[in-house]
User: Fold these one by one.
Assistant:
Number 1:
Amino acid sequence: MQNFKVELDSDGILVCAFDTVGKTMNTFTKAALDDLMAIAERAKTDGAVKGVVITSAKSNGFCAGADLEEMLGGAWEAEGIDKSDPEAELKGAFAAAFEMNRVYRALETCGKPVAAAINGLALGGGTELVLACHYRVLSDGPKVQMGLPEVKIGLFPGGGGSQRLPRLIGAQAALIAMSEGKNFKPKEALAAGIVHEVVADDQVVEAAKAWIKTKGDPVALWDKKEFKIPGGGPYHPAGAQVFMMGNALLRKQSYGNYPAVINLMHAVYEGLQLPIDSALKVETRYFAKTLMTPQAKAMIRTLFFSMQAVGKGSGRPVGVPKTEFSQVAVLGAGMMGAGIAYVTAMSGIKVVLIDRDQAAADKGKSHCEDLLKKAVSRGKMTQDKAQGVLDLIAATPDYGLIKGSDLVVEAVFENTELKAGVTKLAEAELADTAVFGSNTSTIPISLLAKASVRPENYIGIHFFSPVDKMMLVEIIMGEKTSDATLAKAIDYVLKIKKTPIVVNDERFFFANRCFIPFTAEGLHMWAEGIAPAIIDNVGRATGMPRGPLEMMDDVALDLLVKITSETAKAEGANYIPIPGEAEVAKMVADGRLGRKNGKGFYDYPEAGGNKALWAGTKDMFPVTMSEADPAQAEELKKRLLYIQAVTAARCFEEGVITDPREADVGSILGWGFAPWSGGIISLIDSIGTATFVAELDRMTGLYGDRFAPPQLLRDMAAKGETFYGRFGKVDRKAA
Ligand code: NAD
C-alpha cells in the first residue's frame, strides 16, 4: 500500500494516513482509490480491526479531491474505453466518479466504525470522503476549510456529496452550499452540522479514536431504519416547497447558463426519493451528463488547468534565471500606486512610495493602512503582521530613495510628458539591470519607452482597479522590451500572487480593448430605443457580472467620455462615433458621473438600497422596445457577447495576444467575462469558427461593420480550425 501509511494500534484501530504518491497535495489518483478499497476490505474481513481512522500524512492539507489531471488525462481510459473515441477523456472521468462512489460506499459499509480525523483542507472529493465516514473530527487550524466547490469548474459533487450532504444537513442548506460552492471554516462546519467535533490540530486523531472506543457506531445515518431527511424530503410538503423555490431561484440566478446547477438539482431531488445505493447511481448518471456539456469542458479547461498554468507564469520565457525582489519603487501614490504599494508590501517586499510632495505620498500610505486595518478587523491578519507590512512602505517625495530598487512601477497621471519626466528621474538612480514598468492604461509602451535610456528594460505592467482585489495583470511588451525584462516582470507579478498575461503593445492592450465594445454595444441598443432595463437584464443574462449601462456607471461616465474623445483624436478621420456617446457626454456635463457620485444611468440612493433608472434616459432616446420576447432577448445577448469575442479574434490576428489560455483566463479575471463559457476564446471554439463567422456576417448586415469577422477567422473557418487547435500550447522561448 503506497498511498496510505497504515498502522494497527494496540486497541485494534487501523489508522490510515493519506499520502498520495508523487503529489504535493493528497488527491484521489486511481492507485489511491485502489488502496482505499483495500483498507475497506481489510476492515471488513480482519477480525483484529475494531475501527478505522482516516487522516492525512501531508502537512498541507487533508485531501483536495479527485485527481483531475489524471481523471481527464486518460488514466481511466484503460477501463475498457476506446481511446479513439473523442469522448474518451470524459468517459474516463465518468469511470473515475463511478469508482469513487463504489469505494467510498465500501468503506461506509465495512461493518466497522470509521472516523475521519480531518487535519487540514478538505475540498471536493476530500469532503465527500469524510461524508462517507461515520464520524468527523475537524482541526481548528487557521487554514482548515471544507466544502464542495465543484460548480466553480462546471461540475457538481459526483463522489456521493450530492446525496450524503442533503441527508446530513437537509436539502435546502445542502443545495445552497453546493450550488454556491461554499467553503466552510471549522466553526461554520460545526454549526452547519457537517462535522461532529472541532479540536486542536494535534488532537484530531486522538478524538477520532476516542469516538471509536466509546460509541463507535458502524452504521451510517442513512442506513438506519428510522432515518428521516432533515427538513423533509421532496415527497414531504415542506421539502417539496424547498425544491420548487430552489429551482426557480437557481434558474433565475444562473439564467440557465450553468447546466451543472440544474443537474445538481435533479440529482438531489430524484436521489432523495431513493435508498442511498440507488441514489448514488442517480448521482453518477447526472454527473456524467454534466461532464459531457460544453460548459463543463470549457470551464474545467480554463478555470482549472489554464488558471493553474497561467497563474504559474506560462508566458514566462524559459531559461531566464528567477529574480528575487528586495525593493520596489512605486511612482505616484494615487489610487493605483497606493494599491500597488499595498500588494507589493503584502508579499514581503520593501516599497518606496513616491509622490510629488510628502503629503501626497503619505496619503497613499494611509490608504494602505486603511486596507490593513480592514484585514485585521476581519480577522484575516494579526495586528503585528499588519504593522510589519506597513513598516515595509516608505512614503517620500525623494527620488534619491529609489536607489537599490530592482523594479519601478510608475503610476503617475496619464500624461506622456509627465511619465517621461519621472522615467528620467528614476533611471538616474537605478542599476542597469533594474526594470521600469508603467501602469499606463492607454499610452503605447513603445512611445513611453522613448524617454528611457534602457528601452530594453522598459515594459508595461497594467493592473486593474481595485488593485488589492483584481487578480489579473497585463504585461505589455514594447518594441524593444527584452525577454529578460519580460521574465522579471512576470516574476514580480507571481511574487505578489497575481496572474500575468503577456500582451503586445496595441491601443487598450487586450482586456480594455475587448471590454469597451461591450459597453459601446449597450449604447447602440439604447440609441435604437431598447429600454435600459432590457439592455442590462440581457447583459446579466449573458453571464457578465452586470449589464453594459450599469457597468458604465461603475467604471465612471467621465472616464469613458475621456477615453472616447482620446480614441477619436487618435483615430482621426477613421473614427466612427458611437450613437449615444454625445448623450453620455451631456450627462457628464450635467454632473452625472456614474456610481461614484450617485448619478449616472441610474440614481443611487445615498442611504443605500436599490438603484432606480434615471428618468432622463428616455428623453434622450425614446423607448421603442419595452419588452423583449425570448428570440429578441437571445439576439441581444448574442450581440453583447459576440462583439467582445470578435474583438478578441482581431487581437489574435494582430498578435496582441497569442495564447488562448491567457485570453480565456484574462477575460474572466480581468472583466468578468461569462465564466460558463470558459472564457472569450473558448466561447468561439465551442460555437465553432464556421458557425461564428456565418453569424458575424449576418450581424454585420444588420448592425454594421463592427461585427465584421477578421480574415483570420475566415481562414480558420475554411480549414475547420479552433483557436486551441491553431494557437494552443505555445511556450515562449527566450531569444
Ligand atoms: P491618480 O490621479 O489617483 O494618481 C496619480 C498620482 O500621481 C497622484 O497621487 C499624483 O499626485 C501623482 N503624481 C503626479 N505627478 C507626479 C510626479 N511627478 N511624481 C510622483 N507622483 C506624481 O491616478 P490613478 O487612477 O492612480 O492612475 C495612475 C495611472 O494608472 C495612470 O497612468 C492610469 O492610466 C493608470 N491606470 C488607472 C486605472 C484606474 O482604474 N484608475 C487602471 C489601470 C491603470
Number 2:
Amino acid sequence: MKRLQDKIRQEGLILSDKVLKVDSFLNHQVDTELVLAIGEEFAAAFAGDGITKVLTIEASGIQFAMATAIALKVPFIYAKKKKTLTQGAHVYAADVYSFTKEEAYRVTVDQSFLTPEDTVLIVDDFLATGAALVGLADIVAQSGASLAGVGCVIEKSFQEGRSLLEQRSIRIVSLARIASMSPGRISFA
Ligand code: 5GP
C-alpha cells in the first residue's frame, strides 16, 4: 500500500534494526483517514471469504480491526490482555510472549463470541515474531471457527513471524513489508 509506505518513510522512527516507531500516525496518535483506507484494503483482500468476525488483540490492533469490520459490515472482537471482573469463566485463552515488552501475557476471548459457524479474519498492527498472531490463531482453532487468514498493517519480513504463520498454512496479507531497516534507512520488500 503505497500511501502507507510513504507515511512510514516520512514519519516512522527507526529505533533500532528491529523496532519501528509509528506513534505519530498509527500507534498513539492515529491518522483516521489512513486507518479507514487500511480497513478497506483488508476488506477487499478477503472480500470473497465469507468473513463473519474480525479478531484482534488489545490495544494497538483495535483501530485496524474496527476499520476492517466496518468495511466488511461484520462485528470485530478484541482479545483481552487482563482478566476483568465482568469477564465470564468461559474463555478461550492463549499465552503470548511480547517482543517489544519482553514479557509473557495471557489473551482471552469470551467463548460466546466465536463459534464453529464463524469465519474469522485476524488483523494486527505488526507482524514481528508472530507470537501475537499465532496466539490469536490458537484461539480461533479452540473455538472451531474457520480462519480465513491474517491481515498485518506492517510486516517486518526479516523477523520469523511470516514463516511461523506459513508453517501453519495461514494466508497472510501485509500492507507494508519491510525487508530491512536501520536508523535512517528502510527498504520495503
Ligand atoms: P509479534 O512479535 O508477536 O509478531 O508482535 C507483537 C506485537 O508487538 C505487535 O502486535 C505490535 O504491537 C508489537 N510490535 C512488534 N514489533 C514492533 C515494532 O517494530 N514497532 C512497534 N511499534 N510495535 C511492534
